[in-house]
Design goal:
about 300 residues; alpha/beta; Rossmann fold; eight-stranded mixed sheet; two-stranded antiparallel ribbon; about 15% strand
């Protein structure tokens, strides 16, 4: 059976935090973004291949203290797909800045998972995101090394440029058994609902093409050179069982930054924020108080 692209009325009928979803247009794209709560604005960006659902457990908790803004990245979930440049790191940074202008919000804190953390850092360095602090959850700030680095981007580019391959990938990888194996490969253990949402995403050829296009156009070498210039205080959270971004990268990145500290957790895989969302939300809230974004706890 041919795989179908995501449709909000069909595939989003039971989407987490659906009541907070909006569909603005900005930067030439149609966006899916969730906005909830009140208070200082907190921008949360998911990683490659994810969507707003990645923050499903954290958004309601953090909305008690923040105005939480959670978009699907370009080419992901229910957000439309841009040009190849728009799937690059600087391109995504530019597009998200356009979305924030359309929403008329100015975030004071950013939380990013994996590649989402790199986007926040790029925006802060470019001056389009004047945040007072950055929280990275298993952040992917450094290029792949060795053979993986030489093959990863060209292979993804080849797959993204061949229209039939994303459709074949979606057909073969949307099986629940395969999805379970892919998720376990990250070092995380997720429940059935989370796995089902990933199955819907991976079953969409457009979402797969967006994720492949992002990988094909991703280049972290400039960010690696400039990370020492990042001004906002940064919390680098690493999860012990992460099989996607080695936990030691957080220590390496922190040593290059002006103002950073590492929170090395003894639990969780690459999707640790989905495994224990309330624990992650507590770390975000504690950091926000430490840097003065939130008032100290009573």
């Amino acid at each position: 059976m041919a795989r179908r692209d995501l449709d909000w009325e069909r595939d989003g009928a039971d989407w987490p935090n659906r009541e907070h979803s909006r569909f603005p247009r900005a930067g030439g794209l149609s966006w899916h973004v969730q906005v909830a709560g009140g208070g200082p604005v907190l921008l949360m960006l998911h990683g490659t291949g994810g969507s707003t659902h990645s923050w499903a457990g954290m958004l309601p908790d953090l909305a008690a203290d923040f105005t939480v803004v959670v978009p699907d990245l370009p080419g992901h979930g229910f957000t439309s797909t841009p040009t190849d440049y728009g799937l690059s790191l600087p391109g995504m940074a530019t597009e998200i800045a356009a979305l924030l202008r359309e929403l008329a919000v100015v975030p004071v804190l950013g939380v990013g998972h994996s590649a989402g953390a790199a986007i926040l850092a790029r925006m802060a360095l470019d001056g389009t995101l004047p945040i007072q602090g950055l929280v990275s959850i298993n952040g992917a700030f450094l290029p792949f090394g060795g053979v993986a680095g030489m093959l990863f981007s060209p292979l993804a580019k080849m797959m993204a440029m061949t229209p039939v391959l994303p459709r074949l990938f979606a057909r073969q990888h949307a099986d629940p058994v395969v999805i379970g194996r892919l998720l376990r490969g990250t070092g995380s253990r997720l429940d059935g609902q989370a796995a089902e949402l990933y199955r819907r995403l991976v079953g969409s050829p457009r979402h797969v093409a967006g994720a492949l296009g992002m990988m094909a156009n991703w280049d972290l070498r400039r960010l690696e050179r400039e990370i020492a210039d990042l001004e906002p205080p940064t919390l680098l959270i690493s999860c012990a069982a992460d099989r996607t971004v080695r936990p030691s990268q957080a220590v390496e990145v922190a040593a290059r930054m002006k103002d950073a500290r590492v929170e090395a957790l003894d639990w969780g895989g690459h999707l640790g924020h989905e495994e224990r969302p309330l624990d992650m939300a507590a770390l975000v809230r504690h950091f926000a108080r430490a840097i003065g974004v939130l008032a100290p706890a009573a």
